[in-house]
Amino acid sequence: MEKDMQEVMRKAEVLIEALPYIQRFNRKIIVVKYGGSAMSNEELQKNVIKDVTLLKLVGFKPIIVHGGGKEISRWVGKVGKEAKFVNGLRVTDEETMEIAEMVLNRVNKSLVTMVQELGVKAAGVSGKDGGLLKVDKKYSDGQDIGFVGDIKEVDAKILYDLLDNDFLPIVAPIGLDDNFETYNINADDAACAIAKAVGADKLVFLTDIEGLYRDINDKSTFISRLTASDAEKLIDSGIIGGGMLPKLNNCTSAIQNGVSRVHILDGRVPHCLLLEIFTKEGIGTAIIADDDNLAVGVRRDQFCPEH
Questions:
Q1: How far is the C-alpha of 305 from the C-alpha of 18, rounded, in Å?
Q2: Statement: residue 198 has pLDDT above 80
Q3: What's residue 304's pLDDT?
Q4: Per-residue pLDDT tens over the stretch 229-253
Q5: I need a surface site. Which of 57, 72, 135, 285 has the fewest CB within 10 A?
Q6: Strand pairing of 168-172 and 122-126?
Q7: Are 289 and 228 in contact (CB under 8 A)?
Q8: Which alpha helices (DSSP H) does 26-152 contain, by range?
Q9: How far apart are CA 34 and CA 50, in angstroms?
């Protein structure tokens, strides 16, 4: 009986710990970029959707921006083509673009269904809907990589309308250029552009790593928080490489354009979103503005609920 009561009290303490964060972010917009392994594992997928749905139910205004890279590569392989990448960007010819749009729309409606099964209204849109994402053709170091879009404008009206009508928007990263040609967009880029356009309080990247390390081979160099200017120094130092480099560039760009906090989380950890947002310690890397009142070097359990 005593053990049962301890367990009940522990649960109560968790709820009380979450309360200041719920109050702090009530009615605030949070953009969640969802992709990677968490998207290809059904159990993790359900956990992510439960987390985002819970955020909606406790007063947040979440927007999901999803990828679908692994699924796109699988379907590209099915038609006998080989997936090609240049500097982390998918080379997208006309046939690959058709496959990408098909897969992303399929993923989009699957996520809508999962959210609605949990009792929350969701609406799936692509960047083509309502002129949400307008793009120019993107080049990678001067190379033509096909139908890959570089976002030049975000018309967030459709997202505001959905949020105001109590929907959870779920966005597929596809856009149109001035000639109404369809382009594939890197999901990180789309999430960052949308977060800036809607004035999001938080932007969260669900990734396949725990967060940032000064040395990826040394787990003791994990960075739990850093300022945008420190992030820029890391980029300039050449320490950060691979797929994390454009992600970190997006993080600093978001902070410099008014997003309060950016979080890099391991989407493979069940309920990582809730652990990061509703607990004092957090589990990922938080990137903050230079004038944020959370000083670098302070442990997360030493500051008030602002992370």
A1: 9
A2: yes
A3: 37
A4: 888 888 887 777 666 777 788 888 8
A5: 57
A6: parallel
A7: yes
A8: 37-40, 42-57, 69-78, 94-117
A9: 13
Question: CA-to-CA distance for 221 and 285, rounded, in angstroms?
Answer: 12
Please tell me the distance from the alpha carbon of residue 115 to that of residue 214, in angstroms, as a whole number: 37
User: Which tokens in the block code for residue 305?
Assistant: 């609920």
Q: Two tokens at 254?
A: 């978001």
Position 3 confidence tier, pLDDT thresholds 50, 70, 90: low
Distance CA(82)–CA(84), nearest Å, equals: 6
- 128: which strand partners? none
Report DSSP letters for 144-176, one per residue.
EEEEEEEEEEE-THHHHHHHHTT-EEEEE-EEE
- Strands 202-207, 261-266: pairing kind: parallel
Work out the mean pLDDT of the chain and round it to a whole number: 84
> What is the three-class DSSP state of 269?
coil
* 173 touches 67 (CB < 8 A): yes
Q: How far apart are CA 29 and CA 201, in angstroms?
A: 6
Q: Which of 224, 205, 218 has its CA nearest to residue 265?
A: 205
- Paired tokens of 284: 């990922």
* Contact between residue 204 and residue 32 where contact means Cβ atoms under 8 Å apart: yes
Query: What is the helix (H) or strand (E) element at residue 249, kind and residue range?
Result: helix 244-256
Residue with the bigger pLDDT between 257 and 122: it is 122
Which residue has tokens 């309920």? 271
Cα–Cα distance for residue pair 131/27, rounded to 1 Å? 25
